[in-house]
Structure formats: C-alpha cells, structure tokens
Amino acid sequence: MSSSAETAGDGVMMKSRGEETTSPGLRKFQKGFPIVLGAVHVTIGIIMLLTAIVMAAVDLGFVVLIVYWGIIIYIAAGVLTIFTAKTLTKSMVCGTLVINIVATVAAAVGSILHFFAAIVLAIPPCHTINGHSICIQLSHTEIAMVAFSVLEIIVSLWVASFAVLALCSHSREEPTVEAHESKV
Prior knowledge:
This protein is mostly helical and 184 residues long. 68% of the residues lie in helices and 8% in strands. The strands form 2 sheets. Strands 1-2-3 form a 3-stranded antiparallel β-sheet. Strand 4 (128-129) and strand 5 form a beta hairpin.
C-alpha cells in the first residue's frame, strides 16, 4: 500500500491516510517551550491585572492606564502562543511572531513609564493614611511592575526568536510531493 503526500497550505504535509504531520522547520518553534512561555505571558498579565486593581483603588489615573493596555497584549500573546504550540501552522507562527513583537514594544514602553511613575511617586509630599505613607507603597508597586515588564520583554523576545527560527527554517524547505501514476 503506497501513501502519497501532498503539501497543503501553511506548511502542513497531508498524507493519503488522513494523517497530518508538520514540516520539520515549523517544529523548531516547539523547541522554545511555547506552552510554558505562553503560560508565563498569561500569568504576568493576571498578576499585573491584580496589581492594577489595587492601584486603581488609590486612584492614580494615567499610571493605571499603562497597566491595562499592557495586560491585554500580554494575555493575548500568551493565549496565541499556547494555541500555536497546539495547532502548529505557518500562519499561526507568523501571528505569534507579530503579537510577541507588539508585546515586546508594549512591555518596553510600559517599563519606562512605570520607572518614571516610581520616581514621581517617591517624591514628597506623601499622603499619610492610618500612619502609612501611601507614596512609598505605590513606588514599590511601580518597581515591581517594572520587573514584570522586563520579564515580559525577555519572554516575548524568546518566543519571537523561536518563531523566526521556525519560519526561516520552513521557508528554506522544499515541499516534497511524491507523485504516483493512476491507471486509467
């Protein structure tokens, strides 16, 4: 029994028996542990969301807005990275590359803004509520947000680098199609 193979769209090799295998170039994406890194994306997004809720209780306005747009991008990057690891196609890897580049830029901008917010919040006058200085506590929270943003930059660049590796390896591959003669 011979099995012929045809190249379907997005780098998926279709076999005649209904089995589906991914090209070796795209499989290089999975060497970067995309499910784990996607979970880290989502976890960072959730931690930053919880921190933003606490900061919103103090009513900081603009500083809290920095957090919310970053959260949406981080969680979207994480979900897409996990989904791409499960359904590995060329278009999914391209989408993951794009969203991780956007997440890297958002995290870089967010870390700079959080850093400046930490400096501004550390400058007196501080508000004292029940014997606690509110500006020092928020300054430490902003420093933690800088740390999470830097971690997000590292994770996004890691995923993006493996996406580029997979796409470049995939584009160098020649599609292999085995032809067989049909008897009429």
